[in-house]
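# nightly structure sweep
# worker-07 picked up a monomer target from the shared queue
# config: single-sequence mode, recycle default, output format = structure tokens
# input follows
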Amino acid sequence: MYPDGKPERREFDEPAVLIPDLVEQWLKDKLPNVFDRDRAHRQERPALPFEMIREAVANALIHRDYDIDGAKCQIVVTGDTVTVQSPGGPPPPITLKQLQDFSAPMLSRNPELHFVFARMGMAEEQGLGLASLKNRAKELGLPPPRYSWKEPYLSLTLYLSMEATVRTLDEETLDSLNKSERRGWEWVAAAHGPVGSQEYAEAMGVSKRTAQYHLTHFAKLGLVTPLETGPATRYEMARR
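# output follows
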């Protein structure tokens, strides 16, 4: 974390095509330990590859709503996360759920800008580049990135470690979880899809009854959503 415990925030006014390189330099200045792979082993946490941030920043610039006066793309960095904020919700008919599921179809609010970024090798010609973000996180053993919406910003949060999914919970929720549940939540949050009590029990080394209790508790706290009812119920990350 930073000495004062506060996140670092940066807004960008430069031409869109210059911003990804400026962001990279800014992050290297602010987070040398996180993005220096030579130091990652010593810190015992993986360095978040900049290609993930570059993809997130490019998406934010390409698909933002430029009609929202006074709003700017922002990047917020803490000791646990990198969050990229973009003015405007998902371009219709794309939904927030499709973004959160990384299943959104190809659609750009600003196709001309998308074309320019694609020609410069900063964006994919097809789709929103969402699958590459999720797949890269999975390769590194990191939790999947998470989309959220709080007007007027659509935010994409990238986690810097597995433990970040626990440390970023609000204080009240964190206090309601015991040590075993915190470990369990870390595993659930890092899963790249819905989970059930059987696989939870096997992964955490607990009984199926305990696994079901944990998952039910997570649901009561609003951390997960049950997809069905009954003994075969599976749970997915809540849409927040």
